[in-house]
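Cross-posting from the modeling subforum.

Setting up a comparison between two proteins and wanted a second pair of eyes on the formatting. Protein 1 (sequence, then structure tokens):
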Amino acid sequence: MLSKKRPADGGRSLYINLTVVVVFVAVMLGFIRYLNDSTPDMRRLALESLAERFNTSVHYAHWQWQAEGRPEIIMLVTYANRLDNDDKLVATERQPVFMDHQGWPKSDASSKGCAEIWKMVLNLPLEIEGFKVIAEYFDGDKISGNPLDSSCRFRLSTGPYFEYMVSTGQVTKVKS
């Protein structure tokens, strides 16, 4: 009689072990999916932050251009969030910015020119958390027949991007 029970117990034991493994894998996959969906996309958040900073710097440059009598080039100064011993703001960086006749940062009408605008305005390399930012130029004449629609797009290799309208200084919100 013992020999008849052993094969039945062996099949039942295998079935229980297989069920436990399947349930464990399902729970782990659900947990991993939950964690993956609930964590924010850090690269997108970093790009959104840089888009806001880009927009702020473009408008500061425009205001400075007007205040200085509309020169062809201005010196964009970045200040630290502290005061020196004489209670004066501490300048950390000085970056020359070439301006167009409307008072917006400009460069060559090319993707390389868009990269130069990024570097002039942000004074940062084209990089977010180790990922390269790609600067692309879109010619308004070719897109809509209107040269005022020319723009620079700054994007990661996949996913989010924002655009800078060259003739109006408008910076769009980050899109996917």
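Protein 2 (same layout):
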Amino acid sequence: MKISDIKKVCVAGGGLMGRQIALNAAIHGFDTYLTDSMGDVLAAVEKWSGEYLAGRVAKGKLTQEQADAAKASFHLCPELKDAAEGAQLVIEAILEDRDVKLDFYKKVGAIAPEDAILASNSSWMPSSTFIACVSNPGRLANIHYFNPALAMKLVEVVRGEHTADDTVQTLVEFSVVNGKTPIRVNKEIEGFVVNRVLRALRDEAFYLVDEGVCTPQEVDLGVELGLNYPMGPFRLLDLTGIDLNYLSSTTRWKETGIKPNGYDIIKEKYEKHEWGRKTGKGFYDYTDKK
């Protein structure tokens, strides 16, 4: 599979990441099909995409002709079959749940063409997890976008031992064509590159809070003003989703037997539905900004 062979892109999952990955591809000229089994999600995506494109035109970031072309290339499909059939690239951005993803790859493996690339946007579940679900594991890899996917430039392209060379190269080229800067992660490792570095910072930040040294907000101020980071670890958690962090932390605990620093804090916020910006409250309150 070469980049020139990619005519149809399927993105599975209409959540925060999936919708942005799909619209980004449509803006850059790919005929893109976003699928989600929940009709209310697709309805929300339709409204959001129209507002986003109109906003880009108003700001002079896109011409009206470019926005119209992107809209024409951006298709919403409630059925996976319609979205994945005939696609040369499938990007999975569904719920970060192992069983849900395994079921998805079994289904899409039987629908998409035999040589279609199947790439997971998961930030912590490597593509080797899904080898048994497909007949051609050489087409499996991770393509990890960062939130917000429309704005963030970095993409991690992760090679598993099973991943074919041309799969990696095509995903790298696809990232570049979509205005991103890819880095190659040459072996599967939990957390890949960026999240491993971030986790080291976050673990220490949670340790400081757990020990009563300072508050999350004070950690953020220290990191932002002392290290010149654009966003502290807790403010970043609010942006990326406390729910996702809780799920990945739970899996990490089960796999290592070591309870992550700050787990009880995250668990409490997860159970209270304080997931960050998406719910209006996390470590900060966003209700007055809605």
